[in-house]
Fold:
Amino acid sequence: MMQSFCRLRLGVRCVGLSGGKSARSRCSFKRMMSVSVFQQQTYKDFANDNITAQLMTEDSHSILDFSQGGTLGKELNLKAKHVVLPSSGEEETTDSVIVDDFFALSQRGQEPWIDRVFLEDPAYDIELKNITDFFYGIYNQMKRQGRLVILTRPHDCSHYPLFPLAVDKWNEAHPPVTFYSDRLQRAGFQVRMKSASTTIQTETESWMEEIESGRIRAFQSIEKKEMQNGLEELDDLVEGMEHIQFEDKLVLITAVKLEEGQETESLIVQDEGPPYGHCG
Structure:
C-alpha cells in the first residue's frame, strides 16, 4: 500500500520497506547537516556536463555568470564576470556587475560585448514582470552568435517527494519553461530547449534535511512551523522507508543571437543526458 502510494502520488520509488517508525524525531528535524545530494560529485558532473555542452565557451569569450555566488564559473574554471544577485546579500566589487545594469544597458547604445550568459532559475532574482525587459537588455548587448543558457527544472514537480505547501512554493519559483522561451524569442533570440534527467537514490532522512535546510531556494520562504508540519506529513507518508529513489529533471534553455538576416526558430530536444546512474 505504501509503496504504491509513493510511486503514484509522490512520483518516487520507495526502497527498504520496514515496519514501524524509525528512531528519527517527528517533531524537529534538527540534526547535523549531511552533504547535499545536489552537491555530490556524481550529480555535479551530470549537471555541469549538460551546462557546458550548451554554453560552448572559448577562452576569448566574455562570460556573465548569474549563478548564486558565481558558483558555476568557479566549478567550471570559467573566466566569468560574476553578477551580484539581489538575493545573495553580496556587495558589488570592481570585478562584478549587478542585475539592474542589464535593464539600463538596453538604453545605452553600447557596443555589444557579451559572448555567453548563464542563468539558473531567473525567477528567483528577477521579477517575472521584468523578465522580458531583462532579455531585451541582454540581447542588445550580446555579440552575434552569442549564447544565453538558462538552467531550470519543470513546473510540474510530481516526480519529487514533497508535501503540498512545498509543491505550491515550487510552482511559484518555477514557471512553465515556455514562459522563458516565449520571451526570449520575443527579444530576438533563437531558442532551443533540452531536457536531461538522472536517478537520485538517497536516505529518506537526508531528503528531509534537504527540504528543511533552505538549500532548495524555492522552500526558503516556508515558515518554521509550516515546514515542521509539512515534514511530519511527508514523514508519515513514507513511514518505514529508509531510502527513496526519484528522477531529477533538468531543463536547459539555450538562446542564440543569430547573424543579421537569419530566421529564428524554436526547437525542443528531448535527451536523457549522460548515463550516470544513481546519484546519492
